[in-house]
Each structure stands twice: as C-alpha cells, then as structure tokens.
Design goal:
Length: about 70
C-alpha cells in the first residue's frame, strides 16, 4: 500500500505539530510555568491569525484570570 506525499499545507501542519511536541518535552521539566508559556505563545499565534475578535476574547480571558488570582 503506497502512501501519497503530503502537500505543502499538510507538511506545514505536520511540522508545526512536531515542533510543538518537541517544545512541550523541552519545557516539561519547568512544570506548569513552562507549559503556561507554551500556551501563551499559542494563544498569541491564534489571535494573530484570527484577528480582532480573537484578540478581544484573549483580553477578556486574561482579564478574568488576573481578577480571579489577584484577590
């Protein structure tokens, strides 16, 4: 059974997943702080890709988080 080669979009998605997995392994020893930094990077990427509504949602989420943990 022969598998067809990946197109450029599939290859890019595959490489991004691999890179994310490798980064997660590298920061695992830093515990929750390292994982949180990875999520922060991912959140900014998503917001950049999706636009103003995604930035507004991220801002609300961070505002709620800060309010909840500042008391």
């Amino acid at each position: 059974m022969s598998q067809r080669p990946m197109n450029s979009a599939e290859r890019r998605a595959y490489n991004q997943r691999r890179h994310a997995e490798q980064r997660q392994e590298l920061v695992a020893d830093r515990g929750p702080q390292g994982i949180a930094e990875l999520w922060w990077d991912q959140a900014r990427k998503v917001a950049r890709d999706r636009g103003e509504e995604a930035w507004a949602d991220l801002a609300r989420t961070l505002s709620n988080y800060c309010q909840r943990h500042s008391e």
